[in-house]
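hi!! sorry for the late reply, been swamped w classes. u asked for the two structures so here they r. pasted raw, havent cleaned anything up. first the sequence of the first protein and right below it the tokens
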Amino acid sequence: KLNVGVDTIQHGVEGLTYLLTESSKLMISEIDFQDSIHVLGFSDELNKLLLQLYLDNRKEIRSILSELAPKLPSYHSLEWRLDVQLASRSLRQQIKPAVTLKLHLNENEDRTAQVLQTDPSTLLHLIQQLEQALGEMKTNHCRRIVRNMK
């Protein structure tokens, strides 16, 4: 009926979907949205229709996107124990430490537990990596990304 190829219609729908989802994710203002679509070279009437479509549906799009986000387990509590093997039958003087962690998680209203065991040097490396990741979260670049994700 439109005398247009299937690929053109598919690309148009995908482009419109991308425009609306990204604009809704970022909760951009009316002026920013108008500036974004003005570059595309559409007529003023079509720009007004797209703006109205965005304003009418952005809350619903955000709610759908939040439902599609993966539900990750969250931290509840941690139990730990330090075991040290001081000697064995073959080696009378050895020190073999091991740290055992029991991580309790909340996952969809259910509590699960994961038991992990490691040596102290690996645990120290893990702590350093986590501290480095937390330090990177304080940079302006990461703060901007996190702010845009909300």
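now the second protein. again sequence first, tokens right under
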Amino acid sequence: LSQSGSSFHVLDQAQFAKEVLPKYFKHNNMASFVRQLNMYGFRKVVHIEQGGLVKPERDDTEFQHPFFLRGQEQLLDNIKRKVTSVSGLKGEEVRVRQDSVAQPKKSLKIKK
């Protein structure tokens, strides 16, 4: 946890992937872990002095979420996996997409 209590750090990604991830996940892949964090709304913190372009001198990756705060355990219930669904599409778009899926492809005639 950071000093401010509003983020957490992974100081050594290789060691974290090797020792920590297998204890809690079915993998030891750091990229998969970061993808999971992103699905729950966590974002990588990029410091202004780094500008996002310069690779940091040490292997320190920081992640934050608005509801991940020290001493605010009641906020953790608000951290939910983002759901992607067609509910955001307009009814007409859904019908068009369903129609295009329902149409059978024309069969190809094979010449002998």
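hope this helps!! also noticed smth abt the second:
The helical segments are 13-24, 30-39, 91-102.
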